[in-house]
Amino acid sequence: MVGRKVAWDMKKSNQSKGDFWAPCPFHQEKSASFHVDDRKGFYYCFGCHAKGDAISFVRETENVDFIEAVKILAGEAGMAMPERDPQAQKKADRRSELVEVMEQAVQWFRMQLRTNAASAARDYLAGRGLDDGAQARWELGFAPDDRAALTRALKAKGIAEDMIVAAGLAAKPDGGGALYDRFRGRIIFPIRDGRGRAIALGGRAMDPNARAKYLNSPETELFDKGRNLYNLAPAREAAGKGEPLVVAEGYMDVIALSEAGLRAAVAPLGTAVTESQLQLMWRVHPEPVIALDGDAAGLRAGRRVVDLALPLIGAGQGLRFALMPEGLDPDDLIRSKGAGAMREVVAQAQPMVQLLWRRETEGHDFDSPERRAALDKRLRDAVAQIREPDLRGHYEAELKRLKWELFNPRRQGSPTRIDRGAKGGFFKPGQLPLAPSPSARASMLATGGVVEDHLREAVILATLIATPEVLHEFEPALERMDCRDPDHAALVHGILACHHETDLRGALAARLGAEALETLFSQRHVAISPGVRKPGDTEMARMCLAEELAKLDARRGHARELAEAVEDLSGLSDEGLTWRLSRAAEALDKAGRGDGEDTTEYEYGTNGAPMRRDERSELDALLGTIAFGKSGSKDG
């Protein structure tokens, strides 16, 4: 069928694999950018982004509806079309009649918008930035504040009362009597299905005291509000040309987005997003962007979508969330700051895992092991809903990375509460690093051991990459490792994020670039390390890692105690204290190198780090001097 409409480029095509290329029949071009995968029955143009299957190709090129396209293809294949079930045919005919009633109502409402009675409605729309052209494009109308104006107009055209009721346009009073219109004193928004047929209406009240600001058609034979989306057909066309699918809250948001150039915009119809609507979105775009209003209600709605989506997401089928500035919806933002501001918000949309993290951490305290364990459980329970094992593994890795950042011991103290910043970001009270005093910056405490730490970190990271089989044993220690070098910190993040990958080194190269790994492994002290020289030797890797991590922890444990001692001085200092600090720093440096180390003579510092007894005595004496000095002694 396709071959009769195009001229195949036989040099570029591979017939044996069902791979065909030709100039596109949908736009004028000379190059062969139109691709057909004959095995999958799918076409795609890399120029104009037209795509679809055999039925959509026939519909587009022959300008026929779905049934006619199926008949044409059946004829091409020499197959007879099955006879339609009489009941199904009757139901289809009934739906066609109701669609025609709805079309008559849409046209009548559009005419009413041009009357004197609709002057306030026109002023309102103009104030929202919708001129006559926009009103026509969106087929906006007006329902007069008259109990039965529409019913009278439709009956005058010969439409029976039962059809008017069945279409959801009017209702019968419970106690009997004449029909009354469902939409009165409202701006009308026609709702069309994916085939462009009018199936329902939405109405915005002009009376600020109306019981409902927005009113939708009731459920009818045509309209299931949980299975349709506003502006679906135009959005699908725009998304097919590469535009992001943006899901907003209401009609005016969709109109504002589309008029601003974001034409692939849809909205649910007066309800929270349903599973059917999510599946409908994914048929349009693999990663819809949910635009959340910048208020508490918007965030709650986003959290509900996360719960709904977790069991449904899969590879190539996810969601992103665009967080609007506080107090604004898309329409507000576009009118106040322009289309560019909205495009920027959409471009910065966050993946769903970020909203899940926010939901489970924002406003919570984590100042005890029990509360941290509760966070772990909530995250495990959420991720357990993901059905695809590979995707579940990626979520676990990303959440582990976020927890590592949250509880990173490099920050002062432990995080106690996660709060929202003024612009919707996060800050952790009391987590800013202390600025060292001038004397501390000049002392050995600030400079001693930094190079040595860097060397040990490099050996630890390289050993884990060379022998990733032991990573699960040392993962907790890696999470606690406080890397001052941003390159090392990036490697730690990368290893934790990619720990489940079969080829850890390849995954890190893809994530951080090959140069980062080349820099790490080209260092001489790394290259000569036994754990690196013997990749895959798990016993050697374990011994190397245990030794390097123990020495790193010991040296940093002493450093933390000495740093706290310096802070406690609060400006008190003399030559004796300076000398003792210098001696303690030398002992610290010696401990980190392991010089003369006797493993049977270890005690533990106040932070749990191992230290030799002579070093413990040195530090105890120093701390005693500080305490004595702070008590006011002249010998301070």
Task: Give the strand order, joined by hyphens, for the main sheet.
Answer: 12-11-13-14-15
Overall 3D geometry?
Answer: globular
**Main sheet attributes: strand count, strand direction, barrel closure:** 5 strands, mixed
| Number of strand elements | 19
SS-derived structural category: alpha+beta
Number of spatially distinct domains? 4
> Helix segment count?
28
Spatial gap, N to C terminus: 96 Å
Rg over CA atoms, rounded to whole Å, is: 34 Å
Average pLDDT figure: 81
Q: Report low-confidence residues grouped into runs of 5 or more.
A: 421-448, 570-574, 594-612, 625-636
Helix content: 40-55%
Q: Strand share of the residues?
A: 5-15%
